Amino acid sequence: MYIYEPERDLEHEEIKNQLKELKNTLPDINFLDSINYVFTPGKISGYDSMAFINSRKVLEAFTEYKIAVVSDKMPEKSISALQKIGYNIPQKKMCYNIWDNETISPEEILWDELRNGKAHIIKKKLENLLFPILSSIKNADEYQFAVYNPFIVQSTDDVIPPYIEYDEIFSLPSSGNGLLNIDKLVEKIAKMSSKRALAFSSKIKINNEYKQIPMIDFKSTELELWEIENIIKRLDIPRKSLVNSGNSFHHYNLNKLINLEEFYSYANRISEQPEIGKNWPWLSAHQGFSLLRISPSAKKPFFPTITDI
Q1: Residue 118's pLDDT is what?
Q2: What is the spatial distance between Cα 153 and Cα 137, in angstroms, rounded to a whole number?
Q3: What is the residue-wise DSSP string for the chain?
Q4: How far apart are CA 14 and CA 113, in angstroms?
Q5: Residue 172: how many CA atoms within 13 Å on its side-chain side?
Q6: Is residue 88 within 8 Å of residue 66, measured between CB atoms?
Q7: Banded pLDDT at 2 (limits 50, 70, 90)
Q8: Do the beta carbons of residue 134 and residue 257 sit within 8 Å?
Q9: What pLDDT is recorded for position 39?
Q10: C-alpha–C-alpha distance, residues 191 and 184, integer Å
Q11: Strand-pair category, 249-252 with 291-293
Q12: pLDDT band at 1, cuts 50/70/90?
């Protein structure tokens, strides 16, 4: 479910060996002995000093892809040494200049590299998420999507009024069997800013009229699966199509598509659930449709994935 999901998972021992290789190759760079195995598996960070206060991060090595993102403080001889042991060095440099409010994160650069060079992985992830959902929808004519900024606010949980700034709403036709051409979404992602994400809209066209998929975006409050199951029972909705978004959970109720009046009633009903809150349903009702993220962005490094409870 990670933005950085490798084509082949590296074993912990392999990553430790790569850390050892980096230390031997770059004796002037200081590496932490800890390795990130969770959000960005196998990421190894390098600094220009071991003094915590004065140290600057000059390297993020993403070992699964042999991509090393460096800062402009990285010595040229170190860059050449990295290339000799098989690392690709993106031209764009990471930057943490808080005084000029200029930040280019390693994740942003990595996402650019993957969007431009690993389209097959993005396609596979979108298929795994969307095809089980779309195959449950009969006679669809077209689907709607949005390109939006998922970080215009830190969280929509506690912001009143909540809002999402989307750059574009666009439609794609169904391929006739309920599915669609995923390549079109991959092409759109490649052209988007790395700070933007792609969302699936609840509003779809069936037999030349618009219907809505009842959707839920749960609060980003570390809800456990048993808590989610309790809400699903309380709302009497199917357990199928629960999605792990990385930070929380999404839900698609595919048992019955609803009209706009029913959509407003559904938004009102789920807004009374403390695990969902009023803000996201209010936003959906205000827009006339719901949006759920289906792609990563530089600041939200997760592919949403269907999960079972």
Answers
A1: 79
A2: 32
A3: -BTT--SSPPPHHHHHHHHHHHHHH-TTSEE-S--B-SSSTTEEEEES-S-TTT--EEEEEETTTTEEEEBTTS-HHHHHHHHHTT-B--SS-BEEETTTTEEE-HHHHHHHHHHHH-HHHHHHHHHHHHHHHHTTS-SEEEEEEEEEETTSSS-SSS-SS---EEEEEEEEE--SSS---HHHHHHHHHHS-TT-EEEEEEEEEETTEEEE--EEE--SS---HHHHHHHHHHHT--STTEEE-SSSEEEE--S--B-HHHHHHHHHHHHT-TTT-SHHHHHHHHHTS-EEE-S-BTTB-B--EEE--
A4: 23
A5: 19
A6: yes
A7: very low
A8: no
A9: 52
A10: 11
A11: unpaired
A12: very low
Residue range 188-243, pLDDT digits in tens: 999 998 889 999 999 999 988 999 999 999 987 778 888 888 999 999 998 888 99
> What is the distance in angstroms between the CA of the first residue and the CA of the last residue of the chain?
17
Whether the model pTM is above 0.85: no
Closest C-alpha among 66, 74, 62 to residue 29: 74
Residues 125, 5: Cα–Cα separation, whole Å: 10
Under 8 Å between Cβ of 128 and 305: yes
How far apart CA 197 and CA 152 sit, in angstroms, is 12
pLDDT tens, position by position, 52-89: 567 788 999 988 778 999 999 899 999 999 999 999 99
